[in-house]
Amino acid sequence: MRRSSAVPLLALAQLGCGTPAAPGRQSAVPPPPPMSLPMPVFSPQRGMAAAEQNARCERCHQEIAAEWRSSLHHHSYTEPSYQRALAIEPLPFCRSCHAPEANPDRDAPETLARLGVGCVSCHLSEGRVLGAPHAPSSAAPAPHGVVFEARFASPAACASCHEFTFPDGVLRDRPLLMQSTWSEHTRSPFAAAACAQCHMPRVGGHRSHAFAVSSNPTMVKSAVKVSAERLDARRVRIVLQPLAVGHAFPTGDLFRRLQVLAEAVGPDLGRVAMSERFLTRHFVVERRRSVALRRLEHDDRVGLHGSEPSVVELDLGDEARGHAIAWRVAYQRVDHPLAIDSEDALVDAEIEIASGVFGTAP
Ligand code: HEC
Ligand code: HEC
Ligand code: HEC
Ligand code: HEC
Ligand code: HEC
Fold first, then answer.
1. CA-CA distance, 93 to 82, in Å (whole number)?
2. How confident is the model at residue 361 (pLDDT cuts 50, 70, 90)?
3. What spacing in Å lies between the alpha carbon of 116 and ligand 3's midpoint?
């Protein structure tokens, strides 16, 4: 049952014909009564109609559409590292979120695989367009109904896809979170800031839909301030102070880590000694009823305890005496399925955050 006079989305094909404007805008008809629509869910499964509706959104909202087409939301199913991971674990569970408009029980048809997380996945709720409330603007009224919901301007708009448990809950005493960005955010010093405040900055009069993190070294580097000191002949101390990051760093997928590395360099520039640590969620794999279960052993990501800095001391041993020590901190994406914190895991991509060299002192 439709609860107001707003145009059902399928009718957008015939737009342009005197449809009611959004509440808070100039309008000949009274605004619809307040209502509460469900927030975006990870698996709406609307099928091919979703792709057709999405194409309509794109035609009218061209700048936003161009940003979205550059985003990992749009590439969430076709992106190569996801495809490699899916080939190892081809679960309906994975498809339900990475191609949310398709039936997860089989490979997504090409059209819905290419759509990924679409405009419709976030904005359509019970056939209505969700918007975030804001002060009346001079922009043209929308030629379609918009339901302005305060929750859509809050982390609730992101929660169902950015916080979820491993699909093997029945085998565990308690379900384990596979991604926990939402709850990390509720405990962070930025709990009062919406995800959109950092991830959808205003550009050219609208909110950016590029959601760029991994392709945006400036943003990744803005998460932390790094300082280093050589304590003595063999040890360096590296301090990572979290800055404007609204959750742990790194957050999101399992296969993210911060590498903290120091190496002593000989006169011929060869490595004389080395020490390395990975800040990440460290899992151990347990066999239960012939299934491999990940158990979280410890979590030493940056920013887990408010604004408290993470301190890493690396001891390079006596071999380092009398040599220069080079150090670095890098954000790395590691390929599935190797252990996240092992030295020989394959690094898919990395962003160096800070580095430096101490001379041959002490
Ligand atoms: C990942 C979820 C997501 C996707 C995908 C998405 N949006 Fe949005 N969009 C939002 C959220 C959340 C807001 C409200 C942000 C705020 O103001 O708090 C928004 C805001 C908007 C606005 C108002 C922006 C402004 O400030 O003028 C428009 C218009 C819009 N989206 C259209 C689209 C279109 C068209 C697409 C696809 C090309 C799209 N969105 C894809 C989540 C999404
Ligand atoms: C026929 C053109 C047209 C189509 C199709 C269309 N829109 Fe719009 N939409 C507009 C115009 C014009 C506005 C008002 C000006 C603005 O905010 O961009 C608007 C406003 C909005 C707003 C409210 C912006 C705000 O915060 O004030 C959202 C959200 C939105 N559209 C999302 C969508 C989504 C999602 C789709 C596809 C399901 C879609 N639109 C399809 C033309 C269109
Ligand atoms: C329908 C599910 C869904 C919703 C709703 C959703 N996301 Fe996502 N998001 C995804 C998926 C899936 C990916 C992973 C794409 C990939 O890398 O394969 C992703 C990736 C991202 C990334 C990573 C980009 C990068 O460069 O690493 C950011 C940032 C992000 N989302 C922010 C948000 C924010 C903020 C919201 C709420 C306004 C939101 N998302 C809502 C499903 C969703
Ligand atoms: C105060 C600003 C801020 C807020 C609020 C914030 N983020 Fe972030 N986010 C960042 C920064 C900075 C990064 C880059 C460092 C990192 O990867 O953690 C980031 C990275 C991410 C990534 C990329 C992870 C990766 O490594 O690919 C995702 C996904 C994400 N944020 C989702 C969210 C969601 C969902 C919310 C709300 C629950 C949120 N963020 C709130 C600043 C913020
Ligand atoms: C409920 C939603 C959801 C489910 C279910 C889900 N993912 Fe994701 N996935 C995400 C989000 C959100 C991100 C983005 C966070 C980030 O970039 O760190 C992501 C990121 C990824 C990435 C990193 C992609 C990149 O761009 O580097 C891979 C790989 C991945 N997922 C594989 C899987 C596999 C395999 C499964 C099934 C075992 C799965 N996902 C299940 C939401 C989901």
1. 13
2. low
3. 10
